[in-house]
């Protein structure tokens, strides 16, 4: 109870930032003093995500950097790369610090290659993230190189996951998500390069995969992006059709949530 209650109260008081912060700090102190690194790092990430969701990016980064610093001190490579990637994602999506985001992703990639080289899904996902940063920076040739590397590793990993008699939980849970993430990034890159037909072909594959796996949010996003590409090409009728499908999926999801 001593370990659980401070974090429990903080979650339910997150609208009161000062009081929430007090509870979280108490929780982190308990975990740190007890040497419970997993719960310590988990709580830091939880707090950072709460502050990010409330628009307080500065406070979110403060907690993530605290976690990164402690994970470096105890040389917990699993969490070092996690914190590096969390920080990089905020820099990419929230603050527009592309060069810093790239540096954080590259450091994470180096750690993963040295310490977790057997974790192919993690390698693939990190390559996709680096490609995304390169695309955002306008380095399209580098972005395509990274996404091609990710696709090659994925092809080998996918074959291995399907031929291995004893499949790991990791391979079973992540293969579809990795494929969709890979296809989305490549479709986005082709869109930026003006290779509309190639982008639309990939989005078609995404929609088929998402539909077969009942991934409604992904399906909605794919239709929405397809609509934008059609609109950019001047095909307003097709764009309206795609947007209508996207809205219908969104509406059905909201109704399901309310039930």
Topology:
Blueprint: H1 4-12, H2 17-33, H3 37-53, H4 57-73, H5 77-95, H6 98-115, H7 120-136, H8 140-163, H9 169-192, H10 196-212, H11 216-232, H12 236-258
Helix pairs in contact: 1-2, 2-3, 3-4, 4-5, 5-6, 6-7, 7-8, 7-9, 8-9, 9-10, 10-11, 11-12
Q: What's the helix-strand series?
A: HHHHHHHHHHHH
Shape estimate: globular
Query: What is the strand content?
Result: under 5%
Uncertain segments:
1-6, 165-173
Radius of gyration: 21 Å
Structural class: mainly alpha
Termini gap: 34 Å
Number of strands: 0
Count of individual helical segments:
12
Helical content (DSSP H or I, runs of 4+): over 70%
Please tell me the overall pLDDT. Answer: 87
Report the major sheet: none
Comma- or semicolon-separated keywords:
0% strand; mainly alpha; globular; 259 residues; single chain
What does this structure look like?
- The radius of gyration is 21 Å and the shape is globular.
- The protein has helices at 4-12, 17-33, 37-53, 57-73, 77-95, 98-115, 120-136, 140-163, 169-192, 196-212, 216-232, 236-258.
- The protein contains twelve helices and no strands.
- The chain is mostly helical and 259 residues long.
- Helix 7 runs parallel beside helix 9, helix 8 (140-163) packs antiparallel against helix 9 and helix 9 (169-192) runs antiparallel to helix 10 (196-212).
- 36% of the residues are buried.
- Helices cover 85% and strands 0% of the residues.
- It starts with a helix and ends with a helix.
